[in-house]
Design brief:
Elements: E1 8-10, E2 12-13, E3 65-68, E4 71-75, E5 91-95, E6 98-101, H1 107-117, H2 122-126, E7 128-132, H3 138-141, E8 154-158, H4 172-175, H5 186-195, E9 199-200, H6 203-211, E10 274-280, E11 290-291, E12 302-304
Parallel strand pairs: 1-10, 5-11
Antiparallel strand pairs: 2-9, 3-6, 4-5, 7-8, 10-12
């Protein structure tokens, strides 16, 4: 069987150029897969958080572009948590002006794209995708006989796709239209960006936007994982992968307008889902100054930020 990775989303910039998909543009390494996009904050109060949404009428969020003034920043780090991820060395980079979605791409937004174009994602074409084990029902797990060798918490699920994130017994239309779309490959992300007249961000643009103008900080808001004692991102709490205590309010994904924005007004630039960018992935980077870098000319995997 052929599988694509599961929890990914798309971030687009508004100027069409360059990035075209290749025949092998789906993710082949869970660490480098993710795509995320952004949407407009709904004025209504959400009430108590729930990763499954609300029992009332399905809620949606309208996206918009935010203009980011270009500039120089230090990309990467000389103190990576996982050196094998290729985040070093720290290097000075300049990016030009660009526009970026305020929110992650929601299921509602991706559904509009599919409705308008008839697009079929690669996960739907392949018939399956990977899902984190703890998100699956017992009935779905009982049918699975395989796992990822070095990451056995990722299980291949027949019928898993952006419409059915945990397989056939799940459906985004009931209560997750305002959550980020997942089970989207790099090729799918490129097609979506083309539909809105944009392209995927470069890794440099993504990191510049995520930092929100801050230098040498661990998070988009500073160095504290719990600013003011509050959760500002949707990540795992507890013993991975056995127990997520959901102290941030969510077991799975969170709505795209959850948590405070960074200083550029962008939400969920840390946590929630991985985000696709246009670059080929590499662990080798020059420490010399670069202007508008686009990554290696070729490669095997695409970068997820």
């Amino acid at each position: 069987m052929l599988f694509v990775c599961s929890v990914f989303l798309v971030l687009c910039v508004s100027v069409s150029q360059g990035n075209t998909a290749d025949d092998n543009g789906h993710c082949s390494d869970e660490r480098h897969c993710d795509l995320e996009e952004e949407l407009e904050v709904n004025d209504e109060e959400d009430g108590e958080h729930s990763d499954r949404g609300r029992a009332s009428e399905p809620r949606t969020v309208k996206n918009e572009f935010v203009r980011i003034a270009g500039g120089e920043f230090v990309m990467g780090t000389d103190k990576p948590v996982l050196p094998q991820d290729g985040e070093g060395p720290a290097r000075r980079v300049r990016v030009s002006d660009f526009s970026i979605h305020r929110y992650e791409v929601s299921n509602a937004e991706f559904a509009a794209f599919v409705s308008d174009t008839g697009y079929v994602t690669e996960a739907e074409t392949f018939g399956n995708s990977f899902v984190l084990e703890m998100l699956l029902s017992e009935s779905v797990k009982s049918e699975i006989t395989q796992a990822v060798m070095n990451a056995p918490w990722w299980l291949p699920v027949e019928g898993a796709s952006w419409r059915h994130p945990e397989g056939g017994d799940s459906d985004v239309t009931a209560d997750r239209l305002d959550h980020p779309v997942v089970h989207v490959s790099w090729n799918d992300a490129v097609r979506f960006c083309e539909w809105i007249g944009g392209r995927l961000l470069t890794e440099a643009e993504w990191e510049y936007a995520a930092r929100g103008g801050l230098e040498d900080r661990l998070f988009p808001w500073g160095n504290s994982a719990l600013p003011r004692g509050e959760h500002w991102m949707n990540i795992w709490q507890g013993d991975f992968p056995e127990m997520n205590t959901a102290e941030d309010g969510y077991i799975g994904t969170a709505p795209v307008d959850s948590f405070p924005p960074n200083s550029y007004g962008l939400l969920n630039m840390a946590g929630n889902v991985w985000e696709w960018v246009g670059d080929w992935w590499s662990i080798r980077h020059s420490d010399q100054f670069q202007s508008d870098p686009v990554g290696p000319p070729s490669g095997k995997d695409k970068v997820c930020s």
